[in-house]
Amino acid sequence: MQLYFTYKIENNYAFLDEEEMQHAVKTLRKKQGDRLHLLDGKGNFYEAEISEIAKREVKLKILSTKPTVLPWNFDLHLAVAPTKNADRLEWMLEKVVEMGINSYTPLLCRHSERKQLRVDRLEKIAMAAAKQSQKSILPKINELIDFEKFVRSCNADQRFIAHCQSDDLEPLRNAFKFSPGTSVLVLIGPEGDFSPEEVALAVSLGFKAVGLGKSRLRTETAGIAACHTLQLFGG
Amino acid sequence: MQLYFTYKIENNYAFLDEEEMQHAVKTLRKKQGDRLHLLDGKGNFYEAEISEIAKREVKLKILSTKPTVLPWNFDLHLAVAPTKNADRLEWMLEKVVEMGINSYTPLLCRHSERKQLRVDRLEKIAMAAAKQSQKSILPKINELIDFEKFVRSCNADQRFIAHCQSDDLEPLRNAFKFSPGTSVLVLIGPEGDFSPEEVALAVSLGFKAVGLGKSRLRTETAGIAACHTLQLFGG
Description:
The structure is a homodimer.
Chain A: E1 3-5, E2 8-10, E3 13-16, H1 18-27, E4 35-39, E5 44-53, E6 58-67, E7 75-80, H2 86-99, E8 103-108, H3 119-132, E9 140-141, E10 145-146, H4 147-153, E11 158-162, E12 170-171, H5 172-175, E13 183-188, H6 196-204, E14 208-211, H7 219-233
Parallel strand pairs in A: 1-4, 7-8, 7-13, 8-9, 8-10, 11-13, 11-14, 12-14
Antiparallel strand pairs in A: 2-3, 3-6, 4-5, 5-6
Helix pairs in contact in A: 2-3, 2-7
């Protein structure tokens, strides 16, 4: 089923932005009166009929609304330092959106080589992956943020920092305690890992240091492994 | 630590092929008498001294040999139909080698769009990923093989076929019963999934049909998820 994300709902009308419109109207030649299936990225599914095709948006009359059920019932937030090579980050984002996340925050760390990021590009990748894997929510992609600022502002129920500075870390799979509705945040460092000071700061703020198994993983692989672990052990 | 894979051991001498030589001699300017750390891809680690640099290979005298211990003690074989886009397959292979596999077989299925494959390219990717993640074994990359021929020839202790044709499949995480030394094989289909006939044939031959969770995953994501599940629940 072809799905579209609506960016705005107003008075029983849904709107597609220019990009979604491009696909519906230019590529698939949808016309006034045609019916589309829409998601609002917040868990709702709509059937709607095209009522107006304007220059930069499509207006659709909502015919029916149905709340959808997410395949997971907890809040999963990944904060991963962007990889030096942007492709690797983009791949990771696609994969974790397919597996299921609620938010992604790019972290600017002591050892980060990449200090800039195009969030709009990441949003597009997340949207495509959400559609492709038929997710009814769009993960929130946050702006790049300084590590210290971020860890001082987090309030997830379960906060973890995964690093490679010890072989004796408790595995994330054991440290994570699932309960319905729990919120969990995992931090993953850049290619050179977190600095010892960053780990110490996070731990002092209530983060639990965890490992992701015995294999040495690249940053983007660690992000995928963390997400997959939480999805496997979550509900 | 910089590691090299030796492709041949003879009479207490190890040899690097042209590609490894390129890196050691051309890029890192290693010379006669320099010491290198080698892996044979079968679980052994060597310290060796360059004794001769020939045109197409480097000969090294082995100074010490140490068997290494793999981080997992079972045999993990993934057989995944190559994705239409070769990048996706190559990326998957990198990730599963980082996480840990023993062998990979590309499958030619009813719905396969990609019917050809450069195994030598995959071998290079696997070698780079094994080095990068400091694995002492090199996974075996098999030639592309017809689905039916392959499933009729498999003899792993635990054989699974992961598909998307039912929502009620037992999850791989529950179906996999770890015991030290067990051999496990998971089949993953192409973009259009396995055909019902392929699933039926595999099941009739003793494969257990399993699911990989509630999210709809792309082929390459399914390969990563299967490998990660087995590594999490394996020893």
